[in-house]
Amino acid sequence: MVFTYRPSCCFQGLLDIEEQCRGFLELAKSATALLVKSIFSDTAFVDLFSKLCCSDDWKQGTITASILATLGDYLADFKRMLEEAFFKRYAQQSTQCTASAVLSCSNNGL
User: Fold this and answer.
1) Domain boundaries in the chain?
2) How many C-beta neighbours within 10 Å does residue 6 have?
3) 92, 33, 35, 43 alpha-carbon torsion, rounded to 10°
4) H or E element: which one contains 106?
5) pTM for this model (two decimals)
6) 82 — phi, psi (to 5°)?
7) pLDDT score of 104
8) What is d(CA 33, CA 101) in angstroms, rounded to the nearest whole number?
9) Number of C-alpha atoms within 13 angstroms, CB side, residue 1?
10) How far is it, in rounded angstroms, from Cα 90 to Cα 40?
11) What does the mean pLDDT of the chain come to?
12) What is the helix, strand, coil percentage profile of the chain, to 5?
């Protein structure tokens, strides 16, 4: 038996594809924002930023190395799990949050 797809008769008036796509995009935006928020809510990770610009570990590079290693691990994990477009969105948001955290700590350390 062969089924023929006839969108004009099956879903006409029942499903707005554009609205569904917008809803999916909003869901994806919220999900990637939640991923970034969860990373920057990790107290051990946030604690690393508090040591920037004001500790011996920072001067030796161990704090920066730990931050970069942690972010690298998250990036590698999420690259495997997310669609490319959503991974790019995650990477952009993660970069923005990292820059904000570094700037905030450096301003507090001055």
Assistant:
1) 42-110
2) 9
3) 100
4) helix 84-109
5) 0.71
6) -105, 150
7) 83
8) 16
9) 1
10) 13
11) 84
12) 80, 0, 20
